[in-house]
Amino acid sequence: MNAQSFTLAERLIPSTYVQQAVSAKKWRENLIKTFIEQRKWPEEGWDDATIELFLNDLAHMDCNNFPENSGVGEREARFASGVKNSAGCFLVPMATGMSLVLCMLTIKQDRPGAKFVLWSRIDQKSCFKSILTAGLQPIIVEPVLSGDELRTDVHGMETQITTLGSNNIVCVLSTTSCFAPRASDSLEHIATLCSRHNIPHLVNNAYGLQSARLMHLIQEAAKKGRVDAFVQSTDKNLLVPVGGAIISGFDKGLLERISRNYPGRASASPVIDVFVTLLSLGSNGYKNLIYERKEMFKYLKEELGKIATKHGERILDTRNNPISMAMTLSSVNSATDSKRVSLLGSMLFLRDVTGTRCITGIEHKDVASYQFDGWGAHHSNAPCPYITAAAGIGMKKSDVDLFVHRLDKVLAKLKIRSGPLTPTSVEELGSSGRRSTGRVVNGESSEQGSSAGTSLASSKDSLRK
Ligand SMILES: *Cc1c(COP(=O)(O)O)cnc(C)c1O
C-alpha cells in the first residue's frame, strides 16, 4: 500500500493501527534499502515477511510478471541466474559432482592434449564419476596410512606426474572434506607440486565450507602454490535443499570461463534457496551455526569415546579431519562371521540412525571399469572394520545423544548373540538374509542394482551416492 492508501484506510480503522502498520513497513523497507545500498550480508537475520516483501519487489522487475505483459516470443523467465561477489565465486544450479564436471571440462579446453586426472582416492562415488562423466581418465593415487590416518601420497603423485608428463594431465583433483579415517588431502603439498609442474589444481570441498580449518587450508595452499578452483555443495553447507554448488577460486578469468561454459539457462531455485536462507540467518546466525558445529564435533568425540571404551574399542586418531570421526569395530566380527559389521549398520539404520557408515574394509566394488578393493575405506588395506560419524552443520546435542545411546544398545545386543546368526528378525534379513548393496554391505561386489538395492540398510544410503 502507498501513503495515499494508508490515509484512506484511516477512514475504515483507527488511525493508531494504521500508523503502526506504516512504521513497520518503513522498518522493513529500510532493511531492504540498506541491503541494496551496502550489498553486504546483513549480520542480523530477517524475518520471513521482510524476505517475502523483498522477493516480491524483485519479482516485479521480471518482465514476465509485468501486468501488461504479452507472452509472445522467447523470454528469459528468470531475474537472477547467479550470485557473484568480489571474492570470486558463483552459484550453479547443479550439485557438487556435476559442478566438478563443468570445472574439469573448462580446464581441459586450455589443455587440449591432456586426458588424465590425478585423483587422491576418496570412496565417494559421485566424486569419481565426475571424472568419468567429463570423459577423462582417472589416475588413482591411493592415500597412505600414517598412524590411524589416511594421508595424501604426495610422493606417489609426483611419480605419476613424471611418468605421465604434466602436459598430459588435465588437473589434480584433491578433496578436503571426507569420511574418517581419511584426512583432508595435503593441499599445500599438492598446490606446490601443481605450481612446480604447471598443472591445474581443482579442490572438491563438498562439505568443507562449514569448517574454518578446511577453508584455512585452501587459503594457505593458494598462497604457497596453485589452487585453481574449489567447489562446495550448497545443501551440505548452507541448510538448503539439494540442487546447487558454489564454485570459487583465485583466478577470475577461469571462473568466468567456467560460468560461461554453462550451456543455456538455469533454474533459479537453488539461488533463491540460498539467498533466502542467508537473509534469514544473517551472518551472525551462520557464524553461530559454525561455532555450534565445532562444539558438537567435540561433544560427539567425547561421547563416542565413552562408548568405545565401554565396548573395548577406540576412536581412531584422525586429527586432520575436523568433521568426521571413526570408531573401531574390532571385536564385532567373530572369526567365523564377518557379517556382523554389516549387520550393525542395518540395525542402526532400522533404529533411525542415518549417515553413519559401517566399513568392513573387505568389500570390492567396480565403478565403470575401475576396481576398488576395500571400497568405503578409501584404501585397499584397512587395518580393521570401523564405524564413522560426522558432526555436520545443524547437528544438535540430541542427535549425538540418540546416536550414542542406540549404538551402545546395538553393540550390546550383538555381543549377547555371539553364536551364529539366524535371520529371525527384520533387521537381520536386512543384511544377512538378502543380497545387500550400497555402502553398508557385506563384501559382495554389487555394482548392478546399486540404486535398487534390496538391503534395508542400503536403500537410503544409495540415495547418497
Ligand atoms: C557429497 C559429496 C560429493 C557429491 O556431491 P553432490 O552434491 O551429491 O554431487 C562429492 N564428493 C564428496 C567428498 C562429497 O561429500
UniProtKB/TrEMBL annotation:
Localization per record: Cytoplasm
Protein name in the entry: O-phosphoseryl-tRNA(Sec) selenium transferase
Catalytic activity line of the entry: O-phospho-L-seryl-tRNA(Sec) + selenophosphate + H2O = L-selenocysteinyl-tRNA(Sec) + 2 phosphate
Binding residues for pyridoxal 5'-phosphate: R75
The keyword Glycosyltransferase is annotated on this UniProt entry: no
InterPro entries reported for this sequence: PyrdxlP-dep_Trfase, PyrdxlP-dep_Trfase_major, Sec-tRNA_Se_transferase, SepSecS/SepCysS
Record's subunit section: Homotetramer formed by a catalytic dimer and a non-catalytic dimer serving as a binding platform that orients tRNASec for catalysis. Each tetramer binds the CCA ends of two tRNAs which point to the active sites of the catalytic dimer.
Organism field: Nezara viridula
